[in-house]
Structure formats: structure tokens, C-alpha cells
Amino acid sequence: YRIRYHMVLVVKYRKSLISAEVFEFLKKIFVGISERYFLNFQAIGSDGNHIHILVEAAPRYSPSRIMQICKSITAIQVFKQFPNLKK
Fold first, then answer.
1. Residue 15 confidence (pLDDT) above 80
2. Are strands 40-46 and 3-10 parallel, antiparallel or unpaired?
3. Mapped to the 3 state alphabet, what secondary structure does 1-29 carry?
4. Are 46 and 18 in contact (CB under 8 A)?
5. What is the CA radius of gyration of the chain?
6. What is the DSSP letter of 87?
7. What mean pLDDT comes out for the span 55-68?
């Protein structure tokens, strides 16, 4: 199998909150997710107010489950590391 999904994670209200420091931290989080859930992140890009990810996954995960995994883990970790982003 070779199933790839292109997903876009958008910041609430399209605010430009993704700085270079936050983006590098997000890359580290995606590496951890790939090891834990056996996902292969082939490309990760950012444009200040959204993130593009190209992820390859096994058929056992639905696209909505992959999105849930990525969004929930990254949100929790980013808000722990950068608490000022909540404001």
C-alpha cells in the first residue's frame, strides 16, 4: 500500500502565530508522532497561519483519525511549550 494524505492545519482566525521557532518545535513533534503511530511525514511546510503536511499512513488509520492524532498532540505540546500563544 502507498496511501498519502495532504493535510492543512489552520490556526484559529488565520492569525500569523507560527514563527520559525514554533515551526521547528512542530517538526520535532511530528517526528515523535511518526515513531509512535507509524506514520511517515514526507513533507512539512508552513506559511505563518497554516501548516501543510504530506503524510503516508497504513490503511488501518482513517484520514479523520490521522488528522485527530496530529492536531490533538501538536496543540497540547505547543501550548505547553509556548503558553503565550493562547492569548
1. yes
2. unpaired
3. CCEEEEEEEECHHHCCCCCHHHHHHHHHH
4. yes
5. 13
6. -
7. 93
C-alpha cell at 16: 500569523
Specify the pLDDT at position 41.
Answer: 96
> What are the grid coordinates assigned to 32, written together?
515523535
Distance of alpha carbon 67 from alpha carbon 5, whole angstroms: 10
DSSP codes of every residue in 22-82: HHHHHHHHHHHHHHHHT-EEEEEEE-SSEEEEEEEE-TTS-HHHHHHHHHHHHHHHHHHH-
Q: Which amino acid is at 73?
A: I
The grid coordinates listed for 11 are 490556526
State the amino acid at position 83 in one-letter form. P
The label of the residue with cell 500500500 reads: 1
